[in-house]
Design brief:
512 residues, alpha+beta, Phosphorylase Kinase, domain 1, Transferase(Phosphotransferase), domain 1, Cyclin A, domain 1, 4 domains, 5-stranded antiparallel sheet, 3-stranded antiparallel sheet, 19 helices, 9% strand, globular
Amino acid sequence: MTMQYRNRPLEYYGKTPKKIGDGAYSRVYKYKARKRRAVAVKIHNNSTAFIREITLIDECRECPYIVDMVDVGYDSKRGKLYHVMPLAENDLYNQIGSGFFNRNPEKVKVCIYQLLQALSFIHVKKYLHRDIKAENILVFRENNGNVIYRLCDFGLSRKCGKGMCYTSYMVTLYYRPPENLLDRCDYTSAIDVWSAGCILVELILGSPPFDFNENKEVLDKQLTSLGSNIDDEAPEYIKEAVYPISKEKMEKGQLWWNNCVRTPILESKHAEALDLIEKMLVIDPYKRISVREALRHPYFDTFSPISFPIIPIFRVYKPEDWSEKQKHIDWLDVKDSLMKIQDFLENVEMSEVIFVKTAFLFNFFANRDETDHLTKKNVYSYMLVISRVVSKLCCTNPISLNQVSKFVIKSKAKELTRYFLNKIGFKPNIYTGYDWLLEPRNVFELRSRTTESEEEIEPKVWSKLFEEIQKSYISSLFSEKDFHDRDPEEIVEECYNSTLKAFELSRSQEPV
């Protein structure tokens, strides 16, 4: 995290806060100190949501369509984490209610264009927002009088990737896509596209297309009005939901869509938006238009061409050698604690990737601790709280405080967690070589390389070889050799070469 965040006390921003927003995991207050600009302060009740939100905002601070962060810190009086943002003039929900967009296609186009740019940016960074709605789009006015829209509220955001599972019910009901309503946990960034499509309809008609109060009613309207276009390539769960619907009910749903959405849009000044809406609101998530494709749609032809800054998705930390102040911590103490933490994670059924990230983050934290807070006695305690933080970001069933409290007193664990997060700048996301090994395309690349070097290798043999590569990577963390100052691919390359060499040697010694 950049040095611009000074962790000031809340009193610096004012002493008489006024509540301006309320959510499940946080509250937003307006603070106004004398001779200073008013700011919005979001006070968090949930540490996981706090970490997710400020990590994403900090990673995406280059994007002008994502809300800025002025400061971040911990309020010791209230025992709450908070972050400070510029105070918005309004939010999109209130702006729609005021009639700002009525029959004005240019204003609608500017708003949805900026929202899609924000989504494109976070999708490039491999994040899902998971709560796109009008209330989470803030309205700011620049010095030249132009309005700019900025996406906010990233407490429900998650890193995404192939094969990952998430909670199914995150998105607000009016903007929730069919895959979420059908309780799927393996959704993709297409969920944000559906929500953005609902926002576009709301900008034009004044309300989202599926503004019903029951999950069943929303799903029924989605499937009957838009389900006729699915084909045999659609996911099985979509076909199982759509195919049993009677022809009569389907025709009734299509009539409702034509009367309540399609015709009003065609009769308005926004007819050119209809094709984009129907490509965003597709029942099959794999056929849904992507955010980048949406930005290239003819609907935006009146805008100047845009480019997307593709920043490296992951930062590979390059800490220096152990500092002079920490010489009293012997490598054997670290190694011993690593072995204990590996046993602990196995007992609580955590994946090996949690262990790898814990080792990397501990190394990074140790090199940031200039005050000798890290000692021989608390190495294991710090590894425990670090593994808990990592599990909360990576797992649907993270390590609980009760599990950690068997080894560290709860109040002490909380204190160590706060100190650790502060030292690493509240950015616990880190990309390791083990993550690289979990990506199917990288495994395929290694497999292809092995096939070229050997006459032929059986799938069972390759499976065993790949398992040995993973073990080699894990064992490297227990050696004094520092793997942290190189890219993940380089680390894997070394493990691959050493494992393959041992494998070829063992094969050559096999009796003919």
